[in-house]
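Duplicate of earlier report; Metallophosphoesterase input re-posted below.
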Amino acid sequence: MQPPLLHKINGHHFWLSSEKILFWEEEKALVLSDLHLGKSGHFRKAGIPIPQGVMKEDMQRLMHLIQYFHPTQLIVVGDFFHSTNNLELDLFKRWRNDISDVTIKLIRGNHDILQDQWYSDAGVDVIEKDLYLHNFCFTHDNNDIHPENYTFTGHLHPGVVINGLGKQSLRFPCFYFTSTYCILPAFGKFTGLASIQPSRKDDVYAIVEKSLIKL
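Output:
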């Protein structure tokens, strides 16, 4: 894994990882979005043959990041889970026991529709709308920007187009920072991308082959 890159906001230190996650140094928090755990199982229930290893790979990657950064908490900016309960989410509960000392705060996303008791049993604290810490806001939908607090959002699954020679172009997931908000890349492997249109004042870090490239 490439060493994380530092991005400062309002005097706070955020370390960006090419594994689509950032570490907030002052709060000892890993901040991530859009894991969509259980999505592959949801599609298999519908008869679509998605490989079973997709979710396990995401969880192994997250476990590696927890061991690397040693956070005291996870802040998940929505869509931690994808749909109603299935066998894959039983695997999550077993995985949760291995990191019982790490607090998980979930800002509810549009796909987080499990029963409240399920979240409680799984050790996940659910915040219905916004989470405020210091002078930052964490919310799922990038339409809910709060100008008075620098805002971290997910939901969009941002991607940036990089043009090559001739008419060649490729699209990559990215961290997208403006002067008032950041849109986090989707952590889950089984997710799509939506192209962003950054201005010259914005900071964009493309994630290319396990590396971060500042554009």
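The chain has one domain: 5-214.

Merging into the original ticket.
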